[in-house]
Specification:
Blueprint lengths: L2 E2 L7 E3 L10 E6 L2 E7 L2 E7 L3 H13 L1 H12 L3
Antiparallel strand pairs: 1-2, 2-3, 3-4, 4-5
């Protein structure tokens, strides 16, 4: 389960190796809450436990670090 490092805050950004067959996305977790965002185009795919305000904050962090996340995905899954 590769994590994307270098993003400050209480969230862990990651993806699963078996997710490489899906479109590019990132999972996010904090405490017991989790969500999944598609990266292209940036949109919420799933949410369990995050409130709308926090999802907006997470979306902003993803947008800010989109290039890093895309690079991490391509390094792990390939740029197919």
């Amino acid at each position: 389960m590769p994590s994307i490092r270098g993003i400050l805050g209480p969230y862990r950004f990651f993806f699963y190796s078996f997710d490489c067959v899906e479109p590019m996305h990132v999972h996010v977790e904090r405490d017991e809450a989790t969500c999944k965002f598609w990266l292209q185009p940036l949109s919420l795919a799933a949410n369990t436990g995050f409130r709308p305000r926090e999802l907006n904050r997470i979306r902003g962090l993803i947008q800010e670090h989109l290039e890093v996340m895309t690079h991490a995905w391509n390094q792990h899954c390939g740029s197919a």
